[in-house]
Amino acid sequence: MFPKMLKWAGIAILGLISLLLIVFGVFYYVYSTHVNKSYAVEVRSIPVPGDSATIAAGAHLYAIKGCGDCHGADLGGKVFLDDPAVGFFAGANLTGGQGGRPTGYTDTDWLRAMRHGLRTDNKTLLLMPSYEYAKLSDHDIAALVAFCKAQPAVDRTLPPMKTGPVGKVLAVLGKVPLFPAEKIDHGYQQPDKMPVTVTKEYGEYLSVSCTGCHNPRFTGGESPIPGGKRVSNITAAGNLGKWTAGEFITALRTGKTPEGLQLKNKDMPWSMTAQYTDEELQALFLYLKSL
Ligand code: HEC
Ligand code: HEC
Known about the structure:
- Pfam families: Cytochrom_C, Cytochrome_CBB3.
- It is globular, with a radius of gyration of 22 Å.
- Helix 2 crosses helix 5 (about 140-150).
- The longest helix has about 35 residues, at about 1-35.
- The termini are far apart.
- The protein has 2 domains: about 50-185; about 200-290, Cytochrome Bc1 Complex, Chain D, domain 2.
- It has helices at about 1-35, 50-65, 65-70, 105-115, 140-150, 165-170, 200-215, 245-255, 270-275, 280-290, and strands at about 80-85, 85-90, 160-165.
- Helix content is about 45%, strand content about 5%.
- The site of one heme C has 24 residues, from helix 3, strand 2, helix 4 and helix 5.
């Protein structure tokens, strides 16, 4: 009796293990089809001026778009997630130093990466949030490229990125935005330049940077970062509906909200939003409050 039960228990456990292996094999296979998909996109070429005003505009964009969180303040690249289950992820070294951008990287390659989320072989980059930059005007994206190209070389070779088993499953289920190229409208025609004014339209243009966490409808909810803090509703239906423009600016500059909450930079990156100009924050407020 007893040995027989053991035998059946053994068979059940073996069965379960094989089932798990099969399921993981399917995830692994689907993951590799996402990574190996090749995109036939037409990268529209635009002029990239190298004058100091353009480079300064690019420096501001590099700060307010949070590029430094993943690529480092010196653009030399930085590890931003190292977890055996989720994976090892590092923003690329964007400079011309050792371990930096590929040799012969052209303006078209910069645009392919930032507007289409693609590497030079037309396969998707991993985790680079290009879907947040794909609609930037020609003026703004060119300024970013000009700024990046003008920075001094940094010699820093980062270990290759690696998606762990949990990372693969979450990516295939669409729980983490690992494949930027899939989220982009590759035929989108960007405007030449957005007038910098305190209008709802300009606020909407800037608000794309908030959608990664607050979601495209700004209603918040579950964090896109596994285990991250719940994201607030920042439409007029949330606390923001009761705030003045001044209170909004203070919250985004210091993390202190009128309700007395101190936002932590690791949850809500206010050291990044602190770098927006007054005009930009007022435009953002006008737009969010209209929702
Ligand atoms: C959430 C982190 C994150 C942010 C924010 C981010 N990047 Fe990236 N970026 C990455 C990662 C990771 C890679 C490497 C992807 C890969 O190799 O698959 C990358 C790759 C790139 C590449 C391609 C480099 C190459 O060698 O192919 C460029 C160009 C780039 N980023 C520019 C920017 C700029 C400019 C910004 C801000 C406007 C920015 N990134 C913001 C994570 C980020
Ligand atoms: C990396 C994710 C992330 C990004 C990007 C982000 N937020 Fe947040 N934000 C959060 C989280 C998480 C909270 C809630 C924090 C808490 O409750 O402690 C929050 C809270 C807020 C709050 C406070 C709301 C309240 O009711 O107290 C405001 C205002 C806000 N965000 C505005 C913005 C704006 C505007 C942008 C874009 C410029 C933005 N956030 C970008 C994650 C993010």
